[in-house]
Write a structure and sequence with these properties.
Radius of gyration: 20 Å
Structural class: mainly alpha
Largest sheet: none
Oligomer: single chain
Order of helices and strands: HHHHHHH
Shape: globular
Strand content: under 5%
Distance between the termini: 64 Å
Amino acid sequence: MNERSFSKTVRAPANVILERQTLTISHMKAMQSAKIRELRQALADAGVLTLDQQAKSLGVSRSTAWAVLKGNHKSSGLSATLINRMLASRQLPGSARKIILEYVKEKSAGAYGHGEQRLHKFRARLANGQSFDAAESRVAD
């Protein structure tokens, strides 16, 4: 029997398309949570273990540090205002700064499933639009 392949365009039902998009967005949100967990690990590796130490290193209050490092975020993730505050902290270990800059780069590129309008606002609010590429290269050196 001679088998021939052929293609046929089949329109998937809307619920199947929605399910695929949901899985993709779920995967993106999982990646976002994993990046935030990397931040917690970077602080621990730098010897910043207690909540008080973590809050001081991040330049935020204890409750904010708890919320950030717990990783149970709304789908929006870390805000630009919060990121600016953390990056401004002089006590932030270099490894943690690197993770935050990676997070900024990935979120700005849409890797965590945010819409273009939300990403535009996020980029605009990051340290008054300053480029974080130069800061990232300084951390790498």
